[in-house]
Amino acid sequence: MWDPRTSRSQSNSATKIQSAYRAHAIRTLYKKISAVSFEADHLQRLIQRQETVDAIRSNEREKLRMNEALMGLLLKLDSVPGVNPTVREARRKVSRRIVALQEILDAVSEAKTVYDDDCYEYGFVRSWDDVVAKMEEEVCRERGGDEMERFCAEHLGFRCLQRFLSGP
Question: Which GO CC terms are listed, alphabetically (predicted)?
């Protein structure tokens, strides 16, 4: 005999099980994205070091090694399915950071010798931080357009926004 209370109870139980499974799946995917983000942080710290910059400029293998590491991170992100809007947004955010690191790496490797007037100040080569700051500012102005302040805050981080607000 069919009992509506049993049917409702089974439906509630099934809903709870499905909800718990979805939450578990999202946590698992988010952990994968967080691991890739952690690796991207490590590579970013490496790219910011002067020794790495010098190695990339002087050694094509070092540049390839760094590019392969960044591409590997993008491939790991590609393996994370975007089943949930939160997961998709987190994946998109990390992939943008990795692509930005690739662009910085390419810019560093293309600047084999720095004879650009913008990189010299009072006859001395400016610090690497100044060169990176100038590159970030150019990207910020190029891509940000009229809404540069918001673009800097969302995509290039607080340091760029701080430089933008302090002026030239």
Answer: plasmodesma
